[in-house]
Model the fold of this input.
Amino acid sequence: MPRCEDVSVDEHLRDLAARLQGPARLKSDLLTEARHGLLDAVEAYEESGVPPTEAQRRAVVEFGSPAQLLPSWQAELAVGALRGLSLRMLAVAGVGVAAGDLTWRGASWSDGPRPPAGYLLLSNSVDWIWMSTLLLSVAGLLVVAASARSTRPGLLVAQRAVGAGLTGLLALAMVAGCALFTWSLSLWEAALSWPPMIIGAVLVGAAYFSLTRATRGWLLAVAR
Done:
């Protein structure tokens, strides 16, 4: 790999882009700001009589090597990934807690015999998982807000703890939710043709897909 002082501005930015992992918009903003700063430095050197190639070399050296820049940039991207994950979790959990029972309301089997105790326990567990997710999402946003004002090491630990907690809760929610849905179909065959149930299953599937992508983005951001 070429040394920092041997590369051009574009090569330096491509190297940085390849090593960074995080939200696309925030990553693009960081690289755009870096490009503007580098080009301003190149222009200043050229105006003072430095040849273009040498001007780019000096600008790159002055700007800093990937080893110098990446830790702070990647930390910023990790915070951005946690913000996105927390917001998505908050939205999905809020809707789930507020509207979870709507898929059952008015169903033909709702006045029938009570389901088994294990089913009720699983159903209550799903409710508690999403309530915990809602609360932890709020905590995540508070940690993100605090991280914007301070660089205390304890906040980094808090960021990772919240992100890991949300990841674990998502895994629990997916396993418990799929188990509850499957059990519901085995108890009430009519559930398979109940429109609110079908719509709910589609929406929940889309929510799981979105949350999984956000979780993967956070995991990749903190792994760098």
Q: What stands out?
A: The chain has two domains: 4-64, 70-223. The helical segments are 9-19, 24-47, 52-63, 66-99, 117-149, 153-187, 195-223.
